[in-house]
Design brief:
alpha+beta; 4-stranded antiparallel sheet; globular; 184 residues; 10 strands; Cyclic Phosphodiesterase, Chain: A
């Protein structure tokens, strides 16, 4: 199983992002656009997971009891090296606490956190080929004004399984973990 932990988006934000991507998407942009069903805020990528790790993981994630987390999308951006067009997510303190709590919970199960600093975002499109940098910068230049997004309160985080295919990844929810209560 290829797993990751993330936060699903609110229907309002999905609608706002759908309108933005519909406005930007063209037939010949050489980008692979992520479908709205795949949009999420990644908290930790776990990668290939065996049954023993999975059995360790679930109870540890269930031990996380934190309040709702405000999720506020900001501007759009480009990860040049990865060839990704994304919507930035504000790294609010509550989001960082949740992300660090998940890393602490998964470590005893053998998961190693990424060495790169955490940069919360929502992947909207990926470059398909060598024209990536120019395609992404052309896309960014078509944004006449940065969109405004509705802030929402995340009331859960989710364990997703990723299935890769030539057309892109598909995600299925394996487990849901509620937010909204704190320890003590």
């Amino acid at each position: 199983m290829r797993l990751f932990v993330g936060i699903p988006l609110s229907p309002t934000v999905i609608d706002e992002l759908t309108k933005l991507t519909a406005r930007l998407h063209t037939k010949d942009d050489s980008l692979r656009w992520a479908p709205p069903a795949s949009w999420h805020v990644t908290l930790e990528f776990l990668g290939s997971t065996d049954q023993q790790q999975y059995s360790c993981l679930i109870p540890r994630l269930r031990e996380i009891h934190l309040p709702h987390v405000p999720i506020r999308l900001e501007s759009t951006g480009i990860f040049d090296r990865a060839g990704i067009f994304f919507a930035d997510v504000n790294p609010a303190p509550a989001l960082l606490v949740l992300q660090q709590s998940i890393i602490a919970a998964t470590a005893p199960c053998g998961f190693v956190p990424e060495s790169r600093p955490y940069h919360p975002h929502i992947t909207l499109a990926r470059a398909k080929d060598k024209d990536a940098p120019s395609a992404l910068h052309h896309l960014k230049s078509r944004i006449d004004r940065e969109p405004k997004f509705t802030t929402f309160m995340a009331d859960e985080f989710v364990l997703y399984e990723s299935f890769t295919a030539p057309t892109g990844a598909r995600y299925e929810i394996r487990e849901r973990f509620p937010l909204g209560h704190s320890n003590g």
